[in-house]
Amino acid sequence: MNDKHHKVLIPALALSYVIVLLVLEHARGGVASHYLLNNPDLPAISNYWGLLTLPLLGLVFAVRLTRQSRAAVKSMMVALISAFGYGVLMAMSFAFGAEIITSVALLLAFALGIFLPIYRIEYVFGFVAGMTFTFGGVLPLVVALVLAVFSFLVRYFGCKLLAVIHKKRT
User: Fold this and answer.
1) What residues does 35 pair with on adjacent strands?
2) In the chain, what is the greatest distance between 2 CA atoms, to the nearest angstrom?
3) Strand spans (E) along the chain
4) Where in the sequence is the domain holding 33, given as residue range(s)?
5) What's the whole-model pTM score?
6) Looking at the 3D structure of the chain, how many domains does it have?
């Protein structure tokens, strides 16, 4: 399959995934909305927004994927699948009432962001897709963006600091 197909196929798969989740939700009594910070005083966000967010993330991922070497594509796919699994773990632990596991996993995600470039689209897309079946397509994106900004800042300024330290030693 050539690179142009990825730009259509990946967002289409993401859209199909969201449609299936929304149809299942609708069949179980209606499409859910989630309050920001789980606080009813704050605005609710409908899971319908996933129809926009996941295909857009898929498109950005597909565009980046087409610009990479074969080895980089394999690495990106491993990151995507790992982030998806991590998102599923967090979503399922929350859905089954194990909020302590969800909280620990969230804190661990910040720690992982120090060592892994979780600001890259493959991590963000996988994480959001993994959490979508429980939280819709927006709240996981907000969490992923917070984690991504943290990871980018820590890694960027950490490298600068290490370069300064290394320069002073030599």
Assistant:
1) 44
2) 66
3) 33-35, 44-46
4) 3-169
5) 0.91
6) 1
